[in-house]
Amino acid sequence: MSRLLVASTPAHGHVMPMLVIARDLVARGHQVQVLTGSRFSGAVETAQAEHVTLPHAADYDDRDATAAFPGRQNKAGLAQLRFDIDHANSTQRARWRAVMDAIDDWAVVTGTVLAHEVGHAVGLVAPGAAPGGLYGDASLHNANASAAEVMAPAVGYEAILSLTYAFRDLDIAYLRHRIVQR
């Protein structure tokens, strides 16, 4: 069973398709958290996932856009976007920044986990438990591995955001030979 996060801006047209995915993942036996607005708590629970509320600055009710974004009700399309940019107050800017920071964080996490899995797929670590892998010992998957190595045995969300992950020099040499030169 995997632990997965599904995230969506707190707008009905964005959340509901994500809940279909979340419900399917739960049905397949995964533990799923859904990060979105507080008004969708019941819908998330109906999908049998765990609701995680967006930070206050990023949480709003899309059914009352005028309250959340006063003055934009008579605008449409690009004029509405221009209005939003020109008239954003500090709370709205903080909301936008919080959403952008969350997106940036998840891009870093996803990229690091993807790099880790690609490392497995191209042979940096042989199938099975340590000792094994490219080095024929426990050098990748053991207590002595640096926490910031992409192929470290445990790659966690908080660690990825607080450390700078990279492949070891020997991993890079192997990847260049295995992927780039073939």
Give an overview in words.
- The chain is mainly alpha-helical.
- It folds into 2 domains: 3-63; 106-180, no CATH class.
- It contains 7 helices and 3 strands.
- Strands 1-2-3 form a 3-stranded parallel sheet.
- The radius of gyration is 21 Å and the shape is globular.
* Integer-rounded radius of gyration: 21 Å
Largest sheet: 3 strands, parallel
Question: Structural class of the secondary elements?
Answer: mainly alpha
User: How many helices?
Assistant: 7
Mean pLDDT rating: 80
Q: Fraction of residues in helices?
A: 40-55%
- How widely separated are the two ends? 35 Å
Which spans of ≥5 residues are poorly predicted at pLDDT below 50? 131-143
Give the helices and strands as they follow along the chain: EHEHEHHHHH
Overall number of structural domains: 2
Please indicate the percent range of residues in DSSP E strands (runs of 2 or more). Answer: 5-15%
Shape assignment: globular
Question: Characteristics of this structure?
Answer:
3-stranded parallel sheet; 182 residues; mainly alpha; 3 strands; globular; 7 helices; single chain
Summed up:
With 182 residues, this protein is mostly helical. The chain contains seven helices and three strands, in the order E-H-E-H-E-H-H-H-H-H. The longest helix has 32 residues.
What does the secondary structure layout of this molecule look like, with pairings?
Elements: E1 3-7, H1 12-27, E2 31-36, H2 41-46, E3 50-53, H3 65-68, H4 77-87, H5 90-121, H6 157-162, H7 169-180
Parallel strand pairs: 1-2, 2-3
